[in-house]
Amino acid sequence: MSLTARLTVPATQCFLEYVDGAFTRELAPGRHRRPRRAVYRPVDLLEHLDVVAPQEVLTTDGVAVRVTAAVRWAVDDARAFVERSQDPFAVVYLAVQLALREALLDAEADDVVRRARLLLGESLTAAARATGGEVGIVVREVVVKDVLLPPELRAAYAELVTTKARGQAQLEAARAETAALRSLANGAKLLDDHPALARLRLVQALPPGARVEILAGEVATPSRTT
Question: Residue 23: beta bridge partners?
Answer without folding.
Answer: 18
